[in-house]
Structures are given as C-alpha cells and as structure tokens.
Write a structure and sequence with these properties.
Layout: H1 6-22, H2 27-53, H3 59-84, H4 88-117, H5 141-175
Helix pairs in contact: 1-2, 1-3, 2-3, 2-4, 3-4
Length: 192
C-alpha cells in the first residue's frame, strides 16, 4: 500500500486541531469527534489508495475526492467559527457532541446489555438459576403488557435515531459539510 499524500494527512490533523479548539479542548468531546471523523477520513483514504494503485485515473474517484475536499472545507469553516464565536456554530458542534454521546449510550444500553447479562460467571455453579433458560412468552398478563410496551418503546427509539441520522445527512448535503460517521465496533466482553 502506498503512503497517503502529506496534504491529506495534514488535512486530517488540521480537522482534529480545529475540532479540539471548537470544543474548547474538552477531552471527552475531543475523543467523540475524533471517533466521528475517523470513518469519513478512512473512506477517503481508501479512495486515495485505489487511485494510487490504478494506472488510469478514474473520474468517479476524483469526483468523490473533490466532493470530500469541498465538504471538509465547509466543515473546517464551521469548526473555526465555532472556536471563535459562541453563536449558532458553537451550538451545532456542542449538540453534535451530545448526539454522539447519546447514541453511544443508547446502543450500549439496548444492544449490548443483553450480552453482558448472559455472560458466563465463573464464580457460579453450572446449575445456578442464572443459567436456566428464561421463558420467551411471559406467564402473566401484566408481564406480557410490559414486554409489549418495552418493544414498542425500543422501536420508537430506533425510528427516532434513524430519523435524526437522516436529518444530519440532509444538513450535510444542503450546506456542503461532513459531520462525521458513526462506526459500530464489534462487542467484546470486558476483562475483569
């Protein structure tokens, strides 16, 4: 694999520095934004590498890189305005950070919680009641209604997050911005 051009790597570092300044060098927010920006730059780096490996220049790849460059320029403008002024751009960046934090909590709370509940616990005996299978169909009417309400709430939450993602994509397209991508990583059990 060829190395990425210095202009691309310096652009990534510039975005990270501007992001850090726009969140007033807050460590948690800086990490959130780094995790948001990384997938977008990884995808652009993959296109760069494909262009370097091909002998003929692909017009589609060059067009994608031009769009990416234009969107990153717009995003840098937003980040610089957020760092310099405490107006609407700063509120957008702040809310984007809160959105990322909320999404992480929601995903961990709704998708990964069942994996940690069913994890093997070495201090328990193999015949412990925690290892016995639970009934899928609740035995009482009240438990059935609670399960139905929880399932409906989960569906509403999922629809809201999907709708919010669409709003972010529309804002990116309308204002020529790149606000990052959420990358889901494989769940791994915590080592104790």
């Amino acid at each position: 694999m060829g190395r990425l051009p210095p202009s691309f790597t310096s652009l990534y570092r510039l975005v990270l520095r501007a992001t850090s300044a726009s969140v007033l060098h807050h460590t948690g927010a800086r990490k959130n934004f780094r995790k948001l920006w990384r997938p977008a730059f990884d995808a652009a780096a993959q296109v760069f590498r494909e262009l370097q490996s091909c002998q003929s220049k692909s017009i589609g790849h060059e067009r994608l890189l031009n769009i990416f460059q234009r969107r990153v320029d717009g995003s840098l403008t937003l980040l610089v305005n957020s760092a310099n002024y405490r107006g609407v751009p700063h509120q957008v960046v702040r809310n984007l950070n809160l959105l990322r934090q909320g999404n992480i909590g929601w995903v961990q709370g709704h998708y990964y919680v069942s994996l940690t509940k069913n994890a093997w616990k070495p201090q328990l005996s193999p015949t412990a009641p925690e290892y016995s299978p639970k009934a899928i169909v609740p035995d009482t009417h009240r438990a059935a209604m609670v399960q139905i309400i929880r399932r409906e709430n989960l569906q509403v939450n999922e629809r809201c997050w999907n709708g919010l993602g669409e709003v972010v994509k529309m804002a990116e397209g309308r204002h020529n911005l790149c606000l990052g991508r959420v990358r889901m990583k494989r769940w791994e059990m915590e080592k104790s």
